[in-house]
Amino acid sequence: MPCNETEEWSGNRVREEAQWADWMRAANAGDSGAYRRLLEALAPFLRKLAARGFAKAGLSAGDVEDVVQETLLAIHLKRQTWDADQLFTPWVRAIARNKLIDNLRRRGNRTELPIEDFVDVLPAEAASEELSAREAERLLSILGGRQQEIVRAICVEGSSIREAAARFGITEGATRVALHRGLSALAVAYRGSGQ
Amino acid sequence: MKTHDFINALAEDHAARPQPQPLRWTFLTAMAAGLAVAAVAFALVLGIRPDVVSAIQTWRYDFKFVVTLTLAVTSARLVWQLARPAADARSAGVAIAAAPLLLFGAVLYELWAIPASAWLPRAIGSNSVACVLSITFLSIAPLTAAFYALKRGAPLRPGLAGAAAGLLASALAATLYAMHCPDDSPLFGAIWYTAAMALVAGAGSAAARRLLRW
Q: What ipTM goes with this model?
């Protein structure tokens, strides 16, 4: 995704970089609150990148949230690959670009529409909290019974690990394991879903 | 699935294991383990050549290690740069040329230093098939280790990362094998060591395209 460097590193971006890198360092040191703030802050940024990519590919912005969630999952599962001595934003961008390409490839460029028709109607900053995606939910159906219930309770219904554990009558440890395996399986399902 | 709730799930998962092992550590410990396994296999199956004490005093024997260790260091750096998104791999990619250049220089010197009638016997050596097979065999453990680390990484170009991992594994394997190998001529190394390394790098690249997607 070619980007305008001057736009990229103007005031806000520099502050953002410093803030995000701080949060990521704190997250890697064990601060889950900082991690949550980081992901919440990244979501609108990723949404903008994905919308731009979709516009370039001539696709409507309807399924942008699928890419946002797939990218967030990749960032999460690959967070150990960020080195504290490298810039954070380019790392996020590289992952976002990779996931966008994966997503577009899966769609097989079915739609070919002139970009200009869309550029004007693209929301500059679609920041609604209620944004939802269909793909991840559909892919969750490949998970096994109990694992699927647990991941659904936490990912879709917003339960905490403790609440989910209480609801299904299992230990928090087992719930954590089920969630982690479920998320890893979801990442694998994304890869396979286009084939 | 709402993105806000999905983030909740990711944060819960982070809280469950808040400090994932940094990739740097994974890479270093995996390679150390892979090298250790290869070294044990080397000691059990091949072993150091009996005349090592006199061999060590010849530049041709020593130079084998200069080349293989240079390749090991430069390819390790390349693997590391290719394992992470947005890490710049260009200078590491250029540095990978160091070992081939050293070898090329040594080949030119060898061609100048020995009579033309000795070129072919030295190039063919006494053990070429064993050389290729041994280096390939000793590469298995380090290559597996490098793949394990890359699997936890996020290579944007898996094919290239796999080839670099193959170079690293075969450079370590060649360093071990060079202690056993009775052929010290750069002419021999340029043909047979290089053939084995190309084989392992090619296999690494092909395997990576399948295994290292993320």
A: 0.85
